[in-house]
Amino acid sequence: GKHKIKKSKMGNAETRPEVADHINKLKLETIDIDDDEYFNALFDFPRTEDDVYDLFTQMDVKVLKEKRPHNLTILIWKIIQCLRRFAYTPLLINPTNNSRATNCIIIMTRMMPILLDNSNGDDFARHVFWLNEKPPMTPKNVESGTDGPESSSLENISKSETANGAGVPYAAQLVDALFKMLFYPGFTVYPHSGSVTTVDFYDFDPSFCWYAGAMVKKLDSPEAISDMFWARYHIKKCLVACFSGDLLVNPKNVVQSFNPWIWLATSRYTKNVTTLFWSLINAVCRYEPDSSMLPYMSYMTSHEEYDRFTDLAAHLLCLLMDFKLPPTEVISECLQNSVIHQKAAVSIRYFKLEMESILHKSNDEENEEEEKKAEEDDNQDGTGSDEGIGSTIVYSNKFTEVISEIRSKTDCLHIYDSLTNILQNLVDCNNTYLPGSMKQIECHKEILYILWCLVHKSEAFMFNLQYHGNPLKLFKPLIYLMLDSYDDPSKISVFYFTSFVFLHLSSEREFCVSLNEPYENDLPVDLPLFNGTYGDLVFIAFHKIIIGNEEKIHTVLNGLLTILANISPYMMSITLVAAVKMVSMFEYFIARKWLLSKEDSYVPALHLLEVFVYMIHYQYAGSTNLVYAILRRKSLFEQLRSFSVEAAPISANSALNSGQDKEEESKEIVQSRYWVPTNEWVESWKSQLKLESVQRLIHNLFPRVEAHCVKNDIDDEEPILAFLKRTTMVGLLPLPPQIVIRKFHYGIETQNWFIGYLWRLVFLKNQKSGLFDNEAIKLFTVSIVRADPSE
């Protein structure tokens, strides 16, 4: 449950000038790598995250990177040395050393987003973190003496590493230290009596998990104290900062780029992966939105630190779970680029072998042989071998593996119920008698992203959700978010994301069947009143979302209609309100103006016809309202059957070619730029229309209904509907079509969008602390609106 977390201790105000002096020294003087007194003072001052961010600004880091790369490199390597020494030496655990390690982590977090920026072409991060060498000199490096005695000691710094750290890329050393420190007794978890004092394992150890919950029924140790919570927080934030290179990539190329930091953290060489996964998932699942029975009390009892911890755990979990490798050729190019320097041969060999494990061999014995061969090559010429680079991807995201290995029904339902209970806050806080009397959670996007990763990466989780859980617990906040966001430009990304989730769920039979449950009118949505099922709610809600907004949502329009087609074979009934909405939507999409607007404009009509045909063939007894709506508008189907291009419409196409004085070449260019509808084009898609079933329905039923109305002098719909319920179409319709369920699949553009969406969530939640450099971000556009001081 929720508990109070004390704020991290404030730094002494008297030490702030001293810290500022040390930072200024970094910018103004050449620092000796052996000046331990200076670095001890810099790392030992007690301070908070806000103190570091105030005293060590983004501009300070940029200045160091540009004009004092030697000093910045030494600072980075000294921090990594300090963290590794701390992580591998249990005897160092004490309040002073704990504080020093925390300060180092905060400083590294502050610097990392700037260090990863390669917009000026200095390739700083690759040289310092992956090749273990100082960055090359540039015209902007105005410091002197960087190639003097200090440089030689800088190049040899890796030789002084402890705990077999020599030769390993500093990036790997940093990630390794951070992952170890996440479960370090006395720092982030309680010491265990009778257990090992250092944590260095690859298998799952529930005794070191942060919280009870899934996979961990009860903690053996007491609840963590405040300092442990903050230590975990700073480590997680540092990892997120290390992964943030994606923010600096063009959105069209992000899938084609390689993020070695996340790859390293998700590879088979990283420790504590399983323990971290269950710690993070339980950290999110234990979040409890304020649900006081007293109005407005939730605003008085909320804890900002508690929300920050949950957000950060969710961000790190999503980044690790959803990482995918780029195409093989990208990895090969990265591998080739990493072996161009011979100065860091051992470091290169490590990185090269790690990369080749992705591209080539997966067997441990083969990897050992490759390492021995590379060592022999290193002894001969100082470089690793370039042989053995294959094309078969054998890398597997270890966090994805953990998800796929989830089997326990109890664990799956615990996670599902916990996360959907959090999402239920969205419905509850907007369904109160007094407007705004309950505070709405702000982590719902992150919660939904975690659920997305689970439902499409774990078959067991999806199975238990459908057969043992209540799918409607996820459906309700999902449809609410769709209706809340489709018409709001600031929330359109949420609408897209919920559409993708719904599309994936609609491909699962049991989820679709669950929509036959009676709708309880328990959602705060502005829709026509009806007495039906949640399936009816989908039909009515999608009509409201689509009609009149097709240009705003054109990216996911076909996806929404695919959802309707996916669920329709399983809808055991449909209300008259929903049936009329569906036929009205069909009328909209077969209008001449729409069909002649673009080349693929016929696709919505295909999907809606599929909905009608499925319900007529598979759910006729419960679809009399739909049959009635079709009979009333039977002319629409004849209109579509006889549709043709009688004359080219007056449009930009013809207007651009109307000038008599234009040259023939110019006309050809214009013709090639614009699409012109033709009768051949019409015939190409009319052959795909499933009109036969509807035409036979109309042909056989309409005369009977008409005769019944004349005979009984009927002018009301109720007797007609009663008559239709007594009819049958057995033997009159063609053979039922095979049910085709279309599933969600990742395309390049979709993957780009998902990466951008996730990093937008991370970016927005870190705006207050100023973690990222707004001006350097390329993945999406950052607009800064400054408040009017007069207001």
Largest sheet data: none
Alpha-beta content class: mainly alpha
pLDDT averaged over residues: 81
Query: Could you give the count of β-strands?
Result: 0
Oligomer: single chain
| Beta-strand percent range | under 5%
User: Between the first and last Cα atoms, what is the distance in angstroms?
Assistant: 41 Å
What's the number of helices? 37
Q: Which percent range fits the helix content? A: 55-70%
- Spans of at least 5 consecutive residues whose pLDDT stays below 50 are 142-166, 339-351, 358-367, 373-393, 647-672
Query: What is the 3D form?
Result: elongated
Radius of gyration from the alpha-carbon trace, in angstroms: 31 Å
Give a verbal description of the structure.
The chain has 791 residues and is an all-alpha fold. It is 55% helix and 0% strand. Helix 20 packs parallel to helix 23. It is elongated, with a radius of gyration of 31 Å. About 12% of the residues have low confidence.
Gist?
The chain has 791 residues and is an all-alpha fold.
Task: Please specify the SSE layout and strand pairing.
Elements: H1 16-28, H2 36-44, H3 49-55, H4 58-67, H5 69-87, H6 95-115, H7 124-130, H8 149-155, H9 170-181, H10 226-242, H11 260-266, H12 273-285, H13 298-301, H14 304-321, H15 328-337, H16 345-359, H17 364-381, H18 398-404, H19 409-429, H20 444-457, H21 459-467, H22 472-485, H23 492-506, H24 509-514, H25 534-546, H26 557-567, H27 576-589, H28 592-595, H29 603-618, H30 624-632, H31 634-641, H32 652-656, H33 664-673, H34 679-686, H35 692-712, H36 717-725, H37 748-765
Helix pairs in contact: 4-5, 4-6, 5-6, 5-9, 6-10, 9-10, 10-14, 12-14, 12-19, 14-20, 14-37, 15-16, 16-17, 19-20, 19-21, 19-22, 20-23, 22-23, 23-26, 25-26, 25-27, 26-29, 27-29, 27-30, 30-36
